[in-house]
Structures are given as C-alpha cells and as structure tokens.
C-alpha cells in the first residue's frame, strides 16, 4: 500500500506482466468510515490480503470498475469474501458478456450513467464514459483533487491496447477537456503532469496514424505496413501492432484518405 494523497491510497494487484507493467493499480479513496475501491486486480490472493491488513471489513461503501478486463474485475469475489457483497458499479453494456459478468459476481453489478456522481465522506467522484480501450471503459474524476483515475485509457508509461481507435481518441480529448492535474493510472506510475501526459498520448496516436499513411507510398498489405511503421517486433507485441495498424487504417478510411482493395488485399492512398 502507498498513500498517494490525503484521499487516495494505491493497492497493487500483484499481477506483473508485459501487458500490465508492474500489475494493475487499484485504489482506495476516502478517509472516513466508508471508502470507495476502484478496480480489483486479477484475483491474486496477496491483493486482498494487503487490503484486509489496512481496511476493516465494514469500511467499504462500494466498488467502481473502470472496465471489465480480467485484470480489473478478477478480484471482485475476493473483495466480497472479505467486505461482504457491496455494490459494484460499472458501465453495464446490454450484451451477453455483461450478463455473464453480473452472474459471475453474484448479481451485484449495477449500471452507472455518464457523468453520474458517486460520493462518500470528503469524496466526489464523477463517472466519465471513455470507450476505445474497451467499450465499457469509464474514467473517474475526483473533484476534490482535480484528478482522474484513468483505468487503461492512459498508462503510466507506454501505450494502451486499442479496441476502437476512433472512440479512443474522442475519449482522450474528453479527459483533456476536464484538464486534470493528476492522473491515477490503471498500470504504471501516477502522473502529476497530467496535461503533458494526455497530449503525449494524443500525439503518439496522431503520429502513428501519420506513419501508417506515409507508409502507403505504394500499395501494401497490412503486414507490410506494420513492418514499415514498427520495424522488427517481438512476437509478443506483434499481434497488437497488427491490430492497431488496422485501427488506424479504418480511421483513415473513414476520413477518405485511404482505400482497401478486396481483390488484391492491399491498402493504398485514396485517389
Ligand atoms: Zn484493459
């Protein structure tokens, strides 16, 4: 546990990997009788053991989830076992995946609406819907500190995996408009230069999008574009590079800047 401010403490998920960096960051917010937990890690026993050493059983008001990837929701049942069945709030999607999640977590999953306020003593959190990394992704704006819990929208370092690039960029612009001072990230370190960090993420994507466009000096397959843009890649990150490149290509296609030939399986710049 590390105390990051008078209101916020970090509880690491104990699940380090190439994708999760040191592991998933989970946060306890509030200093009063009832606290709020953001995310639950992957379900590693050390996570709940650490929480139980610092927070009493009756001290948790609710759990907020940034998005339903396994490394963020995997510890919910462990939290129930210790804290009891507190309500768990997320953006609930009307699909099979979210119905299964609700069943898996004892029908304790409740839906948030965009901009909804969640309060506890000394704490005002606002749900900010930010799809793109995953369709149900929510950031939480902590008004008292002008801070945003970014989930996987913005990592402490490196860049996140995309689901829908177009949505992702709109979500980054949305958080940029909040103009937070601090970013409490879902992975990696807290960032106290929030404006620079958000700009860096936006610029990184814009630059990649330009590189993908520039790579099309001649007709190319997606694989050929990946090779031009990223060079030699470790097999572990190669598939996400291909996926991301496809996302940039789709965005460029929406803007009528590139075309895809179904017959040749190749991309080219639009005429
Ligand atoms: Zn994720």
From TrEMBL:
Q: Which UniProt keywords apply?
A: Hydrolase, Metal-binding, Zinc
| SUPFAM superfamilies from the UniProt entry | Metallo-hydrolase/oxidoreductase
- Alphabetized GO MF terms: hydrolase activity; metal ion binding
Q: Which domain of life is it from?
A: Eukaryota
User: By its UniProt entry, which InterPro entries does this protein fall under?
Assistant: LACTB2-like_MBL-fold, Metallo-B-lactamas, RibonucZ/Hydroxyglut_hydro, Sec-metab_biosynth-thioest, WH-like_DNA-bd_sf
Enumerate the Gene3D superfamilies for this protein.
Ribonuclease Z/Hydroxyacylglutathione hydrolase-like, Winged helix-like DNA-binding domain superfamily/Winged helix DNA-binding domain
Q: Where is the Metallo-beta-lactamase domain?
A: 23-187
What protein family is recorded? Belongs to the metallo-beta-lactamase superfamily.
Q: What is this protein called?
A: Metallo-beta-lactamase domain-containing protein
* Record organism: Blepharisma stoltei
């Amino acid at each position: 546990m590390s105390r990051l401010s008078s209101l916020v403490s970090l509880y690491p998920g104990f699940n380090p990997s190439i994708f999760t960096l040191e592991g998933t960051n989970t946060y306890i917010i509030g200093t009063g009788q009832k606290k709020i937990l953001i995310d639950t890690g992957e379900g590693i026993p050390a996570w709940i053991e650490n929480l139980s050493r610092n927070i009493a059983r009756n001290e948790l008001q609710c759990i907020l989830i940034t998005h339903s990837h396994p490394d963020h929701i995997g510890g919910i049942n462990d939290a129930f076992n210790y804290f009891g069945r507190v309500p768990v709030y997320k953006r609930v999607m009307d699909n099979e995946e979210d119905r299964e999640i609700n069943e898996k977590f004892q029908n304790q999953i409740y839906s948030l609406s965009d901009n909804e306020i969640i309060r506890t003593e000394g704490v005002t959190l606002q749900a900010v819907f930010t799809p793109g990394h995953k369709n149900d992704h929510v950031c939480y704006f902590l008004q008292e500190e002008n801070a945003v819990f970014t989930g996987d929208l913005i990592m402490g370092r490196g860049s996140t995996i995309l689901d829908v690039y177009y949505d992702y960029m709109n979500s980054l612009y949305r958080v940029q408009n909040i103009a937070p001072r601090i970013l409490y990230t879902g992975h990696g370190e807290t960032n106290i230069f929030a404006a620079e960090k958000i700009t860096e993420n936006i610029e990184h994507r814009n630059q990649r999008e330009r590189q993908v466009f520039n790579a099309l000096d001649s007709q190319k397959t997606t694989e050929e574009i990946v090779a031009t843009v990223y060079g030699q890649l470790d097999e572990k990150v190669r598939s996400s590079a291909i996926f991301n490149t496809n996302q940039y290509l789709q965005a460029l296609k929406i803007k009528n800047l590139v075309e895809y030939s179904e017959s040749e399986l190749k991309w080219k710049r639009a005429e």
